[in-house]
């Protein structure tokens, strides 16, 4: 089991986040799409999901809803969106 599932479509940002997490001893799996995250969670378990909101194919809010139907795990939302509605949805 990986400790963390990182769902981020920006490769440079994902590589940086993974480097810091792995340096601190965490195992990390990285997927680049919302559908990839949901698919991964169908067959694997993690202790934490780091979730971007602006993703191709399926946004982070939809990913969060889909994962919550099957799993009870902490989800940290990472986003450049700063609107009130986005914060409340998160």
Describe it.
There is one protein chain. With 90 residues, the protein is an alpha/beta fold. It has four helices and four strands, in the order βαβαβαβα. The chain has a four-stranded parallel beta sheet, sandwiched between helices. Helix 2 runs parallel beside helix 3. The radius of gyration is 12 Å and the shape is globular.
Name a few traits of the molecule:
single chain; 90 residues; alpha/beta; four-stranded parallel beta sheet
Give the helix/strand layout.
Elements: E1 2-7, H1 11-23, E2 28-31, H2 34-43, E3 46-52, H3 60-70, E4 75-78, H4 84-89
Q: Please give the number of β-strands.
A: 4
Structural class: alpha/beta
Main beta sheet: 4 strands, parallel
SSE ordering:
EHEHEHEH
The pLDDT mean sits at: 89
| Proportion of residues in β-strands | 15-25%
Overall outline: globular
């Amino acid at each position: 089991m990986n400790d963390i599932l990182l769902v981020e479509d920006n490769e440079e940002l994902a590589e940086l986040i993974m480097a810091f997490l792995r340096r601190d001893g965490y195992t990390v799996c990285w997927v680049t799409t919302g559908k990839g995250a949901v698919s991964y969670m169908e067959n694997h378990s993690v202790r934490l999901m780091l979730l971007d909101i602006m993703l191709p194919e399926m946004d982070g809010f939809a990913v969060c809803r889909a994962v919550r139907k099957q799993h009870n795990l902490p989800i940290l939302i990472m986003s450049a969106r700063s609107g009130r509605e986005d914060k409340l949805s998160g």
